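Researcher: Go.
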Amino acid sequence: MLIRCLFLIHIYCIYTFFYIRRQDFSYSKLECGALRQKFLNYFTMFLKFFASILLVTGLSFADNPSFALSPLQDSLAEQVTQKTMELNYVEAFNLARKLRLENDGVGCVFQNIIRISMYDDKGDTTSLKVAAKNLETCKTEGLWDALRNFEIGYVLTETGHSVKGAMQTRSAANQFEDAKDYESKAFYAIYAYYIDDSFGWLPFKSDNRETYLKILDSGSLRSARFWPLFLTPLIWMHYDRKDYATGLSLAERGLKKAPNHPVMLQIKADMLYRLERYDEAAAIYEKSADDYLVRTGKTIRYWCSVLNLIRIYHDAGDETKASEQRKKLDDPEYQKLKKWMPGSLIDDLNDRKLI
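Model: Structure:
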């Protein structure tokens, strides 16, 4: 739209210039001067009108993409994140609908972030599939379109389309890479960290993982609307580095922002397990299994609790309790959801012949 407007200004100026030049041959100097002044007056009025359009639509002459929103839209986005992390999904959707009335594309993206969060928490695979479909139709621009692609990449990966997911994430990363704002840098850091982690062993390949960790850490502290999207991968990066103490500290930071969040509690238990604090890890997962059984039934997070308890009790030397948990896997409900279990967890249990 901005390019079209500038093009129209350009055509308007050229036309008026030649019109006045043509009049020079048929009017006196005084009359031509009056024509030029009239042109300047009309042109000034046109520029003022064009400037007002820019202010209303949020366009800018600067070609710098941004996550910037109006104060109202920004407040709604932050509230959506807050309610989502409080597990108040109904109110989160209500706020996202209000946001969509103000900014359709941004509201659409947040609606589907809620759905992805519901899948992550409640094991609601239907919500994940709906998010996959709806994200394709969100009418976004600039960095919000990059975020849309980023979320599509996650959904594709989670539903077993790893190659397509990687390509989609790369597309989003390319959009984030040159952006100047800290939130874009944090989203790019997620992608870039794993690229460096995969290819850092190559000679002459730069390794900026420490920088990306710092960028993500800063983003998770500063961003009220995206902090869960930054903090969660940051924790798992430290987990992969076997820096479980930092991972635990970050999980506890998340729980201060979202007290008793069930997914963050399981992440905390994973760190405690790796730190060989087995009693604490087992206590969290036992409670998590009980809570999910009440809230959602035998869904993904319930079975994640059972699987983790098998290895926690085994490593703690309590084979009786490990066996009790293992027997639960005979349930047909587990077999239905087995493909949704975390691959790294299943691989660890299989490699150690614990299941």
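Model: Residues 114 and 263 are 14 Å apart (CA to CA).
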